[in-house]
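Please think about what follows:
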Amino acid sequence: MTSAASATATLLALGGMPMIGQGDDLSGMILDALERSGEILLDGDIIVLAQKIVSKAEGRAVSLAQVVPSTEARELALRCDKDPRLVELVLSETDEVMRVRKGVLVVRHRLGLVLANAGIDQSNITQDEDGVALLLPLDPDASCAVIREEIVRRTEKDIAVLIIDSLGRAWRKGTCGIAIGVSGMAGLLDLRGAPDLHGRQLQTSELGLADEVAAAASLVMGQGDEGRPVVLVRGVGRGRSKGSAAELIREPELDLFP
């Protein structure tokens, strides 16, 4: 177990990132943005990326004109008052429909995330006449690993990469940044066995380290028209060097609120 506690941490949202298109070199664009910001990567740094720029680069934008809704999608669309074509895309990314009511479609995504609309949305992407929707990356952990490996190759610095998105939370209003992809750091940090202030061993404490970094980065990244999809995080312990966002997913059989 390695502590992530730090008395001081800094977060810098990088300016100057261009609009991202399919096939773009995200690693190179990130390094260019760092240079424009006057920053040089250091060992231990964490690069946090908004999900949208990764999805765009990976070609995960879908024109609704290309989507033919199934009977199931049409029936669900009537219940939740959504575009049947959007519902069809949601179903294509879904292992299980969890909750349906007017304006709400909550599903268990194929990645294990429980979230509204399978994480698909239409904000901050160029629309056509019929509408365009953006899906989550196929494998965010793998996407992080590819970007990290390329940045490490170009800079020879030991860094971590996160992909984050904003999700709602059970029993809480509002969205919060969480990690959906992790490479080069712990996703979940097991603190069990470590002492508290009085020397008593912690019994159940597991820290969602990547989620805590994601939430902090989301604050400076913004959720609207800020145009700051990359954040440099410095001074946060990364735990063990290997980890994933998948380890943050609670197994369905342990879910107390199915």
